[in-house]
């Protein structure tokens, strides 16, 4: 067929091509809108819908529905100016939607590795280390006198507390430095050859895996690779040792934990379940030798959590912005790339800690089994032993396992084991959406998927989170165990997660992310529960009679207060002129 002539094309355009106002297109668009609304109601190809998603939407109050419409309009307006693949802290503080998501009551932080949180707040951690008397730096195998040496990540560099600095006059950056000598950290910072303390902080952050760019955005990498990895990985171990030398010295750990709790609560989080990866060396104040067990570590965690709880409940909340503080618990995470004996010893230490600190130890995890290449199947002997010992000691330590990731789907088989082992939540599980039967099993067993979004890593709209929600799989957002949030600050990381989800998927909206936040409360391990009562309380949700129901009711109050604030703050500008669906409700609700 010959190409259209200009005359033929003009004739089609003016006489044959329907315009948007033609009845035939209007009828089609009406049908399309009805179909989309029906899809949003169902949100699943089965009759068993995700009660934490569809039911949440159906139960929205008039004021919450009005807030959702307002946020939709704000988001649509911002789509012309902001994308989810070009995020920097400066850019994210400007949009109205960012300010709104900062105020969102986010419920609980269910998956956050303590070392990853330290890296997210690495500037604050370095400041604490420089302010703490006795902190020293050493290089065990050579001096750092040249630019090549300072950038060589194979050179073992450590930060530790030392009582006496006999050779404090030495400079680690000079050629006459004696290997293994500890020099005061402040001296090392002041003497850094490329910019003094400012340059030293940049160098130390780079050794911990953070690269600062001139535009103030933060990119996280390992020293030699762009591959995402966790702190327990072999390549990241050197960075972890340096970071942990600062973090797990008691005076620094106390101050950092206080800072973290304030930051998390200011970001709208009421509850945290922090993962500590063992084995770790914890040093008491003034001690150069690590503790032989975790007892003193849990003493400090318990003291600081209780102290902050008292402070949070007695300090007036004049602005009405702060959510209630419910506390924190610890999930004991074991590094699986150890020999069998070491893993058993660590698991036994977990049980011992649980027997003393029952209120603090919430569960057990294996750190990054997918990335480290050792499957849960390989770990079955140790895991079955662990469960038997828990039964003998009459302690409840449930599994909260990571599965379904890894390179080339190598961790997908872990999904089967995680479910059979009775995990109560699944970390990330990026391959789960490819397994229909597994998704059905996850729904049947009331297992939550802890999903971590990584802004800036490709097209976030292709993330499997929305596919899981559409299939009725309960999900919540988390920071995960990886280093993508280095330098962001813990609070910024979670606001980033929710804000990214809001902008990545139009169908999610404020109601969708509200459901994700509610799920983090519904699946939180507030107290020890055997499997039967755990499932019962998840099913009952806020109509139950236990602690979980109480927390869900408290969160619902915060959610309504948040929605009222949106309508009050933005209703005049965004409550009218939208799609005409319920604008009058906005005005009535605001009044």
UniProtKB/TrEMBL annotation:
InterPro entries: Ado/ade_deaminase, Metal_Hydrolase. Gene3D superfamilies: Metal-dependent hydrolases. Residues 215-235 are annotated as: Disordered. It comes from the Eukaryota. This is Adenosine deaminase domain-containing protein.
């Amino acid at each position: 067929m010959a190409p259209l002539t200009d005359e033929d094309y003009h004739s089609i355009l003016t006489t044959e091509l329907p315009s948007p106002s033609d009845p035939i297109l209007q009828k089609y668009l009406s049908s399309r809108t009805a179909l989309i609304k029906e899809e949003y109601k169902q949100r699943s190809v089965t009759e068993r819908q995700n009660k934490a998603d569809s039911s949440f939407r159906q139960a929205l109050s008039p004021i919450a529905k009005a807030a959702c419409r307002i946020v939709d309009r704000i988001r649509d307006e911002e789509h012309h100016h902001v994308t989810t693949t070009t995020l920097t802290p400066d850019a994210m503080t400007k949009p109205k939607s960012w300010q709104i998501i900062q105020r969102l009551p986010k419920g609980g932080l269910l998956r956050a590795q303590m070392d990853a949180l330290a890296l997210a707040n690495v500037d604050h951690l370095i400041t604490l280390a420089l302010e703490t008397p006795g902190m020293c730096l050493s290089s065990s195998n050579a001096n750092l006198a040249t630019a090549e040496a300072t950038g060589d990540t194979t050179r073992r560099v450590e930060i530790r507390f030392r009582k006496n600095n006999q050779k404090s006059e030495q400079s680690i950056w000079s050629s006459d430095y004696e290997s293994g000598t500890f020099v005061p950290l402040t001296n090392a910072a002041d003497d850094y050859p490329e910019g003094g303390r400012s340059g030293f902080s940049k160098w130390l952050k780079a050794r911990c895996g953070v690269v600062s760019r001139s535009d103030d955005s933060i990119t996280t990498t390992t020293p030699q690779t762009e591959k995402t990895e966790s702190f327990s990985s072999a390549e990241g171990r050197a960075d972890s040792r340096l970071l942990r030398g600062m973090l797990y010295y008691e005076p620094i750990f106390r101050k950092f934990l206080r800072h973290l709790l304030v930051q998390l609560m200011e970001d709208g989080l009421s509850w945290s379940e922090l993962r500590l990866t063992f084995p770790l060396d914890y040093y008491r104040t003034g001690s150069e030798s690590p503790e032989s067990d975790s007892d003193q570590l849990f003493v400090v965690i318990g003291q600081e959590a209780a102290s902050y709880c008292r402070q949070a409940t007695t300090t007036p909340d004049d602005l009405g912005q702060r959510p209630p503080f419910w506390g924190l618990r610890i999930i004991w995470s074991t590094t699986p790339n150890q020999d069998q004996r070491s893993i058993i010893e660590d698991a036994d230490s977990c049980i011992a800690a649980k027997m003393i600190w029952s209120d603090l130890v919430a569960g057990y995890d294996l750190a990054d089994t997918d990335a480290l290449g050792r499957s849960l199947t390989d770990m079955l002997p140790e895991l079955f032993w662990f469960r038997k010992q828990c039964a003998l000691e009459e302690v409840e330590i449930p599994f909260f396992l990571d599965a379904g990731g890894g390179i080339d789907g190598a961790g997908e088989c872990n999904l089967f084991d995680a479910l059979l082992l009775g995990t109560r939540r699944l970390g990330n599980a990026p391959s789960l959406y490819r397994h229909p039967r597994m998704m059905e099993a996850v729904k049947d067993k009331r297992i939550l998927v802890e999903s971590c979004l990584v802004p800036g890593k490709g097209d976030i709209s292709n993330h499997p989170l929305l596919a899981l929600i559409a299939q009725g799989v309960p999900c919540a957002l988390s920071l995960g165990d990886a280093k993508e949030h280095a330098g962001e600050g813990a609070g910024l990381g979670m606001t980033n997660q929710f804000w990214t989800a809001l902008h990545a998927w139009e169908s999610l909206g404020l109601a969708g992310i509200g459901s994700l936040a509610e799920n983090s409360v519904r699946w939180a391990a507030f107290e020890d529960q055997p499997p039967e009562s755990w499932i019962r309380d998840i099913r009952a949700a806020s109509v139950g009679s236990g602690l979980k129901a109480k927390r869900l009711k408290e969160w619902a109050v915060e959610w309504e207060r948040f929605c009222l604030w949106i309508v009050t703050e933005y209703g005049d500008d965004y409550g009218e002129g939208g799609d005409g669906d319920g604008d009058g409700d906005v005005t009535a609700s605001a009044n």
